[in-house]
Amino acid sequence: MVQHSDIPAVFHAGLDGVCFSDPEDFYAIGRIYALGEGRPTDLFAGYVWLRYAAARGSRRAARLLREIAGELEQPTLRRARRTLRLIMGSA
């Protein structure tokens, strides 16, 4: 069982009680983080949300992932992938 503390705060911040099911919802959140739309850019959070969306079929998320993946340092990319495995395992 994944513990709440194992998943980054970005997946919980302000989302209590909100239920997303469409991959494009996850894409939109990832885009906000990745591109800094209305908030500071956070490539780690953007990458995780976008990978989640792409895994559920969002082509737009897959395209944006290809664009930003090169901007992440390898340790950050590995951490993002571990986080995604935790999240996907709990979904």
UniProtKB/TrEMBL annotation:
Name of the protein in question: Sel1 repeat family protein
